[in-house]
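Friendly challenge for the regulars: who can give me the structure tokens for this chain first? No prize, just bragging rights.
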Amino acid sequence: MKKDNNKLKKIGAWVAIIILLLACCMPMFFAFGNGENAQSYFKASLAVAIMVPLLAYAMWMVYKLLNKNKKVADSDMENIIFDVGKVLVKYEWEKYLDGFGFPKEERDRLAKVVFQSKTWDERDRGSEEEEYYIEQMIKEAPEYADDIREVMRRSGETIEMMDYAETWIRYLKDKGYHIYILSNYSTYMLEKTQDELTFLKYVDGAIFSCQVKQIKPEPAIYQTLLNRYHLDPEKSVFLDDRAENCEGARKEGIHAIQFESFKQAAAELEKLGVK
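First reply, four minutes later:
Bragging rights claimed.
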């Protein structure tokens, strides 16, 4: 059936091309006429030569608009929900921290009180100002106060967009899927890196934890996404690099794939019919 449809489309395209060529050639044919009505025929053919391409373009635009959200792939999934960190962007805090050249003892201490701390995770909730979270970290290692401030000030440097991110999002959009973002992300980091997240202009909606004061894997943030965009969880699949966040999604009825790599995630999506 699909091959027959493709064959019909090709035939239709060739018929349209022939009609357009004939319409464009008509003025030249009548331009050499010597009959009584030659001039009238020429004017009429000229009008046809102008109107037919315009009508064809208008019909193509209408077709494109009507099929904008029509899925090309055969899948029960309608909505694809992406985490951001380690899925669509690199989050290389260890490489970033090593770049400061701190002595090993200080480096390991900063890793623990900054990036591996509960404060860092809670920062994504955005309930407090940035200074509050910095002060909480400094309390854990006051001897490194200045360095903690500098590490936090430049923390946006931990983010770099994956080379496949924008292409992947656009590909899925062209296939007719609705694309959403559900990410734990702090206010400060979002302000510093949002311009780099160029894939955001293609998504149908986004929930950043700092904007709703909720974080994964709490049930509330998944419900916020589902309710705000009126999504059917059974027709939605969520990709996240953390197992607990995937499990949180499943508890809310959303299909979930724990992201390991682009190739692995694409293969898992294909099993759900997303190609």
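The chain has 13 helices and seven strands. The CA atoms of residues 83 and 183 lie 5 Å apart. Your move, everyone else.
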